[in-house]
Amino acid sequence: MKPRDKNMEHGEQLLDDAEIADRARMGDMEAFGELIQRHRDQAVGWAKKMAQDSGLAEDITQEAFIKAFLHVGRLVHPDRFVMWLRQIVKNEAHMKLRRGGPYGREMPISSLVIGKEHSDPDSQADVLERLIARRNDEHPADAEPQRALLRKEWLHLFRSLLPCLNERERGMFDAYFFMQLSAGEVAERFGTTSGSVHTYLYRSKAKIQKRALEDGQPFGLTSTAAVLRKNSLSMPTGVLDVKVTYVDRMSKLLRARGEGATAADLMGRSGHAFRLKISKQNTYADGIFLFDWKQEISKLVREYGYEAVYLTGQLEGTPVPIHQVAMLFEVVSADEPPVMQFIRRFVDCGCPVLFFDTYVKRPYVYEWNLIYSYNDLDRTVELTDITPPYRKTLTYEELSASPLRFFCGLQKTGRIVKESDLGQLLQIVVRQARENENDEHICGIRAYDQWIRHLESGPRLANPYGHRYLAHTCSNARAFAGRFVRSLATNRHEEVVLEDAAALYDEAAGYLKQISAAAPLLGEYEWTADTLRDASEWLGQAQQAEEQAVRMLEEYIQLLKLKNTKQGDLE
């Protein structure tokens, strides 16, 4: 595996173990691979000193690395990684030696799944088929739910991983771990020596581990406790700081990682404070959700030194909401293990998981929420909600059956974050204002014209709820526009120029607030030609104010470019 740290490309000094271990603790699997590459020989040496057998030492080391991979998220002191790893190797060696030394009978993890039965050595049936074919009455799920869940996780894992073995490796792995034959019995069956069996097993487990790491699978479940567990982070408040739930949840997600990310800053940097996208068909509110989620989140968190990790998909055979976004993701089945593996991975590292939540009540519009707790015993997760008590519970089945699957966790990259200059930040504003239309939506300042045309079509054709939701969301978003523009000033000259543009955005926000107050999201609203006429006038005034603000910013961006060009010529 290649080292994770890309600073080597620039001739810089390698990161020390503590820094790489901290990355691994936050879920960076490549960083974990770098640690293994650095300390593998040392770990084999520890194991060999205790086991006095090269084959068994390799076996011990492999098992120790698997356990270290599973539990690295709980490493409290990254600077003590080597001591921590050595203790895991010692524990694994003691366990194997207690089982009878190099060639004693193992008590494999499959015993937790299929009991202590010795399968017929002459049977050539595939191990997965034998596991699936076990009679339900031998291990009733209601009597032993831990075994049932572990068996389900085990089966799912090996369906995807065992094909990486060749026929001989698969046969030995089957006989040793599932039939529970001793190394000597496996050797007799395959016409080889016990030492060779251990070598084959070591290579097989290495292949499976490599495939598991490549696929992002947590491998090596060694006990019921390794699967059935629970974890709960401090609950992020579900009360909204800003009514755009995507930005509100992103700011709370970054704050949970220790970053000072304010909603106002994220509203501006993401462009949501200036965004407007209106359907060509009606006053539907779907345009609020239509942007490239992965691209935007990745760009946003990169500015804080994080990498976004995703689990996405559109559910097979199910009507999927936000169709234009869903088409960016592959079709998936309602498969529970990948979802829960993803959530456990990040919650165990102290990171809530961003979730596109289709399980909403009033106001019946999909929202973004944060998953901060899971419980394998109850098979439930807890997450934020936008209505009192600002939290709710979903089952694992409900999460897996979400028609549009979108989960996101953050891991620290260690990259140096560069400050954006004023011109770049102002370009974010201008791009939103001048965004082009697509087949289904009008975007930017021109979207005001489309919104007005819908309202002028009268109460029979315009969508009342969509209009109310658009007014509610856009008025709250524009309230941050002027605030963000003002925050960009670093000297007196910039303050004067940007204040004028910010005041115009405040004016536009005021008109949108009037529309929202006249058409509240919840409550009574008189949907008549007169109320639509008033809303149309306010929209026109908001559009004029924003157009003036954008022209000011465009002129100032050109001045900044000219200034930078002259400065470059002088240098």
Descriptive account of the structure:
By secondary structure, the protein is of the alpha+beta class. Helix content is 53%, strand content 9%. The chain contains 23 helices and 10 strands. The protein has helices at 17-25, 29-51, 54-71, 81-98, 111-114, 127-132, 145-161, 167-178, 183-190, 194-215, 224-227, 245-256, 263-270, 293-302, 323-326, 336-347, 396-400, 422-433, 447-456, 464-478, 481-487, 492-518, 529-570, and strands at 230-232, 277-279, 306-315, 331-332, 353-357, 367-375, 380-384, 391-395, 404-412, 441-443. The strands form 2 sheets. Strands 1, 3, 4, 5, 6, 7, 8 and 9 form an 8-stranded mixed β-sheet that branches. Helix 2 packs antiparallel against helix 3. The radius of gyration is 29 Å and the shape is elongated. Mean pLDDT is 78; it is low at 1-13, 101-144 and 218-227.
Ranges where pLDDT stays below 50 over 5 or more residues in a row are 1-13, 101-144, 218-227
Structural class: alpha+beta
The geometry reads as: elongated
Distance between the termini: 44 Å
Query: In angstroms, what is the radius of gyration?
Result: 29 Å
Strand fraction equals 5-15%
The biggest beta sheet reads: 8 strands, mixed
Helix content: 40-55%
Q: Return the average pLDDT rounded to an integer.
A: 78
H/I helix tally = 23
Count the E strands. Answer: 10
